[in-house]
Amino acid sequence: RGVPREPGARWMEPGCRSCACQGGRVLCEAISCPVGCSHPLPTPAGSCCPTCAGCLHEGVVRAEGDVFSPSNGNCTVCVCLVSPHSPLPLPSPAKCSFRGRTYAHGSQFSLDGDGCTICVCRGGEVECSFAPCPVLDCPQHQQHLGPGQCCFTCRDPPAPAGCFVDDNGVEFPIGQIWSPGDPCELCICQADGSVSCKRTDCVETCPYPIHTPGQCCPDCSADCNYQGRKVVNGQTFTPEGQPCTRCTCQVSGV
Fold it and tell me: Which residues lie across from 131 on neighbouring strands?
């Protein structure tokens, strides 16, 4: 091509051909590109061979160690792992090269040192998996990812201010004690917002008990019950319709 070349000189020709001057003749051959990885990137502009300096995913070049989600799945996470691969089968105890460090076969290490992603060297390849997270039983608005945590946790629900006891929205403050209508039943509003109720057992009995409205157990202390009317101990009275009869309430209740 009108350019003199010294014997033994080598140069590149368009089309990724390597040429040499040997014995007055020009010998050219296509460049052979030994690939040192399993998923090489496309050949950069101005170069002849592909590169193993990153990952190509959905047409986007990712740097080594990049963590990203594919466009078609929010629940899938991918990691760009750039480890040299030989075209020949590697022995099982082969070491792994990852981010400038070498790991022995079977060794485990954490991606970015956060403990959320565990990687293991297997036969010259690095396999990474994310720490499993438990299934939460709280609604999404109560889920929280704290600093340094790998998994979401449930926030503590706000402390209740009181107890709702019916559909009308009646609320009792915590610690409030009340009777729901039966004087023998007492309820209390507990600290967790629940209502606890207990009934009172009346153990005292007498032949003529005195029932006081709003009082659970009958009164058998010293008063009398005469035809549904309370008579104070020691009181003398004339029964209705019996003007010649005098009655007195005695301590014995008879």
Answer: none
Structure tokens at 221: 């202390």
Task: Output Rg (C-alpha) for the chain, integer angstroms.
Answer: 46
Tens digit of pLDDT for each residue in 132-182?
A: 788 888 888 888 888 878 888 998 877 777 887 766 667 888 889 888 878
Calpha distance 172→52 (Å, rounded): 70
Say how far residue 74 (Cα) sits from the centre of its chain: 17
Distance CA 164, CA 170 (A): 6
- Determine the 3-state secondary structure of 55 from DSSP: strand
- Identify whether the C-beta of residue 37 lies closer than 8 Å to the C-beta of residue 83: yes
**Short-list 1, 28, 33, CA closest to 12:** 28
* Token output for 166: 């019916």
Hey, CA dihedral for 49, 53, 55, 59, is it positive or negative? negative
d(CA 111, CA 119): 7
92's tokens: 């099982």
Please, what CATH class does the domain formed by 162-199 belong to? Answer: mainly beta
- AA identity, residue 16: C
Quote the pTM value. Answer: 0.34
How long is the chain? 254
- Four-CA torsion 218, 223, 226, 228, nearest 10 degrees: -40
CA gap 121, 93 in Å, rounded: 9
Q: Would you list the DSSP string of 86-100?
A: -SSPPPTT--EEETT
Q: Are 217 and 204 within 8 A, CB to CB?
A: yes
